[in-house]
Amino acid sequence: MNSESQQAPRGEQAGPARLAAFFRTIFSAIGDYLTRTFSLFWLGPAVAALVVIPEFAQHVAEIHLGMFASADSFRTLAADPLRMGFGYVKIAGLSLTFLASARFWWCRTHGGRWYDIRRLAWARLLLGFVLFMAIGSLTELVKPLTGNEAPLALIVLASLLSFPFLFMMIAGLFGDRATPLKALILRSWPWILLLALLLPILFGPLFLLHGLNHKWALGAPGAAVWALMVFDSIVVGLMASPVGAALFTAYNRFDRARQVRSS
Length: 263
What we know:
Blueprint: H1 2-43, H2 45-65, H3 71-77, H4 81-110, H5 122-136, H6 142-146, H7 152-173, H8 181-186, H9 189-217, H10 222-262
Helix pairs in contact: 1-2, 1-10, 2-4, 2-10, 4-10, 5-7, 9-10
């Protein structure tokens, strides 16, 4: 009787303790993600510059074209070849910064140089990228084949099925050849969900601010336009930095958990 009465409170306490541990883990990951997002600018300025410089160069071209004179000018010149040329470079810089910032944090934690591409696990990186893009894009075939838009449930399912291959790609980016592919695909789900939680925390608000900067610049005095575009270049850098921070934070926790399990 006494043993049963003692076991009951223990069982009752286990649930809240596990819940508290879960929230501590989440808040710790968010804190790590936020710290790395902002500290990239002084710990790894060369990484942030991969997108900040192309973004500012595009803004210089936009100001030179007179895009911010009015809303009509902005619409008319949006597809100008000069602006589009700088835009392609900016998109490449943005994508590169996503990956470079994640690798920067991995190398800072585990050793190595972030720019040393010889350390990448190229087979995993490329295979993961191809499968991630292919599986996530399968729903694009629905309309050509059926004439109807893909159901939302199918889009969500395809996205979820593609995410483990994002982890395979990240493993390649980090040069991780030790983690079995089976573990990357089947055991990464808790950290995939963590990644899905982290990604929009800063990227969403910063993307909105990026659009507002352009709106505020329309018809503004020249000095204000230049100030806004300098600020916007930093905002775009901050849009790239949290993506890399989220990729690292999620994968690093997955890697630590795997090592604890195997020890």
